């Protein structure tokens, strides 16, 4: 911590490190927890979980995924908490609400089955192109989206 000297430390979900948090608290540094999800059976909420529970109080604020996690934190008198949802889930859900149609893809597909290979690497692309070229099918279109889109990707 002396080397990095963080202004703010952000922990995500279940990544709670009590020793680190105790040091954060001791040094009066800032830390928050985002996308947190708690369950009743976790040590934080048991009689023997005092040390873990105390570590939670190093957080300036905890943003939970759901109301039940907020309620559990409030049951141990941790009140600097907000329900913000699961950031990953919310992102995927919001994408579904957008118009994701791409006219040039629709033109390319031409009402045919389209197979998309995403985040591909050269080794897999060789196999895939060999397969595509060995079995030309009029009713299938392929899109290969490499993991690395920079020029040296061969």
TrEMBL record:
What are the alphabetically sorted keywords of the record? Cell membrane, Lipopolysaccharide biosynthesis, Membrane, Transferase
Pfam families assigned to the protein according to its UniProt record, in alphabetical order:
Glycos_transf_N
Q: Which domain of life, per UniProt?
A: Bacteria
Listed under GO cellular component are: plasma membrane
Cite the 3-deoxy-D-manno-octulosonic-acid transferase N-terminal domain residue spans from the record.
2-90
Job of this protein: Involved in lipopolysaccharide (LPS) biosynthesis. Catalyzes the transfer of 3-deoxy-D-manno-octulosonate (Kdo) residue(s) from CMP-Kdo to lipid IV(A), the tetraacyldisaccharide-1,4'-bisphosphate precursor of lipid A.
Q: What is this protein called?
A: 3-deoxy-D-manno-octulosonic acid transferase
What organism does the UniProt record list as the source?
Answer: Algibacter lectus
Q: What is the lineage of its organism?
A: Bacteria, Pseudomonadati, Bacteroidota, Flavobacteriia, Flavobacteriales
